[in-house]
Amino acid sequence: MIDPEVLARAVAAVERATGDEVIAEMFRRSMAGNLPAVAEPLPDGTTFVLTGDIPAMWLRDSAAQMRPYLLLCKDDPGLQDSLIGVLHRQLEYVVLDPYANAFNKEANGAGHTTDETDMSAWVWERKYEIDSLCFPLELAYRLWRITGRADVIDNRFRAAAEAIVELWTVEQDHEARSPYRFQRLHDRPSDTLVREGRGRLTQPTGMSWSAFRPSDDATELGFNVPGNMFASVVLGYLQEIATEVLRDEPLADRAKTLKADIDEGIAQYGTIDHPVHGRVYAYEVDGLGESLVMDDANMPSLLSIPLTGYAAPDDPTYLATRQLLLSPENPYYYSGTVAAGIGSPHTPPRYIWHIALAVQGISSTSAEERQRLLELLRDTTGGTGQMHEGFNVDDPSQYTREWFSWANAMFCELALVHAGIKS
Predict the structure, then answer these.
(1) Sign of CA dihedral 16, 17, 22, 26
(2) Which of 345, 299, 303 has its CA nearest to residue 324?
(3) d(Cα 391, Cα 342) in Å, to the nearest integer?
(4) What is the pTM of this model?
(5) Residue 384 in contact with residue 33, Cβ under 8 Å?
(6) By CB distance 3.0 to 4.6 Å, which of 125, 223, 312, 381 could disulfide with 207?
C-alpha cells in the first residue's frame, strides 16, 4: 500500500538520522506491514481500518494509525487513495451516529450490545469521546493541504462536519441539552457513567463535554481539556475548509464561534496555578471549581499539545505543564530500573505506554531527547520488535497487547520527525 521507493527513501533517512540499523529496520517493517494488516478496501471505495486486535474501526485509532503515512503520501498517489478511503469511511460513520466511537464493517450488530445507550447495528461501541470527532476533521484537513486533491472534501464531509458542530454545541450545556446516556453495568467502574448514565454534574464553561477519554475510560470531571484543545484546532481547520472549499459561510461562522467559546473556556477554567510549576493546564475540569492535575498516555493528551497544534513546543505554559507531567506530580508518571514515562489508569500501575514515549519525543525540541526515546522504544519491546500498549518500567517483557498498531504508528512518526520529515 506504500510505494517501495517512497518507503526506501524514508528508511534511509531514518537510518542516517539515528545511526541505528535496528531502529531503521523496525521502522521499515512497521511501515510496510502496519497498513496492509489493518486496512481493508471496501467495494464502495472506502477503507475499513481495524484498531489492531479488535474487529472494529475506532474513529480515533484509525486516523492516528495513518499519521506516519500522511508524512509520506505527497509523492505516492496510491497511498493517497488509501488514506482518502479511510477518511470517507470515517465520515460515513460520523453521520450514522456522531456519539459512537467505534463501528462495525457492516450493520451486523456486533460489539457491546448490552450497553444501556442508543445502539445501532452499525455501532461496536457508543462511548462518546470528543476526540473521536476531532480526528476525522484533522485527517481531512491534512489530506487536503498535502495532496491538493479535489476528491478529499465531498458531500460526506459537509454532512459529518455539520453533525460534529451540532453535537459539540449541544454538549456545551450537557445538563440541560444532551440526549446522551451511557451505562455498562457489569464491568469496571471506568467503563460506565454515574448518575444513571448522565455522568458527574457539570456547569457550562464554554468547552464541550465528553463522556469518555481517549483511553475509553470515563471522564471524572466532564470537560477534558486536551480534547477541547484538539477541538479548537480542528474547528479552525473546518472554518478554512468551509470558506475555501465548501463556500459555506454559515458553517464557517458556526465553527468560528464555537472555537472562540472553547478557547475562552480553556483560558478561564482549563488553566490552574500549581504550587511547584506555576501556570499549567489541567487535564479535566467540571466548571464547578474542581480540576484534575494529571495526564493520560492516550492522545490527545496534555503532553501532545504541540502535536494537535494547540500550542508550540516552546510555549511557556506548555513547557511548565510538560515539566509537571514528566514528574511524580503526575500520578501516572512512573520511573523504574529500565524506563520512565507516562502510563494510564487504563493499564496496571507502573506500566508506561509506548505511545506516550513517542509523543514525548515528537513534542520535544531536543534532537538528543528524540534519539534517546527512539533507543528506549527499540529496547523495550520485550523481544518482539513491536510496540505494545503498556509495559512494566522494571521489566519490559511484561506488557499489555502484544501487537498495537497505533503504538507502532507513533514510533514510526517519531522516527520520521527525527529524520526531518514533517508535514
Answers:
(1) negative
(2) 303
(3) 11
(4) 0.97
(5) no
(6) 223
Look up residue 133 and give its three cell numbers. 470527532
Residue-wise pLDDT for 233-249, tens only, equals 999 999 999 999 999 99
Instruction: Take residue 39 and report the three cell numbers written for it.
Output: 486496512
Is 52's pLDDT higher than 80? Answer: no
Question: What amino acid is encoded at 161 in this protein?
Answer: A
Q: For the chain, which domains are there?
A: 4-418 (1.50.10.10)
151-181 in b/e burial notation, b at 16+ Cβ within 10 A?
ebbbebbbebbbbbbebbebbbebeeebebb
Task: Collapse the DSSP code of 334 into the 3-class scheme (helix H, G, I; strand E, B; otherwise coil) and give the result.
Answer: strand
**CB-based contacts of 169: which residues, under 8 Å, 6+ apart?**
208, 254, 258
Interval 31-51: pLDDT, tens: 999 898 899 999 999 999 998
| Amino acid identity, position 406 | W
Q: Is the dihedral of CA 128, 129, 130, 135 positive or negative?
A: negative
Enumerate the β-bridge partners of residue 58. Answer: 102
Q: How far apart are CA 31 and CA 65, in angstroms?
A: 10
pLDDT at 1: 76
Partnered with residue 41 across adjacent β-strands are 47
Estimate to the nearest angstrom the gap between the alpha carbon of 238 and the chain centroid: 18
Q: Grid coordinates standing for 251?
A: 458553517
Spatial CA neighbour of 352 closest among 314, 293, 399, 385: 399
DSSP assignment string, 90-143: HHHHHHH-TT-SEE-SSS---S-TTSBS---TTEEE----HHHHHHHHHHHHHH
Which residues pair with residue 351 across a beta bridge?
Answer: 392
Task: Reply yes or no on whether the pLDDT at 401 is more than 90.
Answer: no
SS3 for 225?
Answer: helix
Question: Rounded distance, CA 351 to CA 296, Å?
Answer: 12
Closest to 138 measured CA to CA, from 216, 279, 215, 241: 241
Gap between the Cα atoms of 79 and 57, Å rounded = 19
Query: What confidence tier does 423 reach under pLDDT thresholds 50, 70, 90?
Result: confident
Q: 259-278: per-residue pLDDT in tens?
A: 999 999 999 999 999 999 99
Beta-strand relationship, 351-353 and 340-342: unpaired
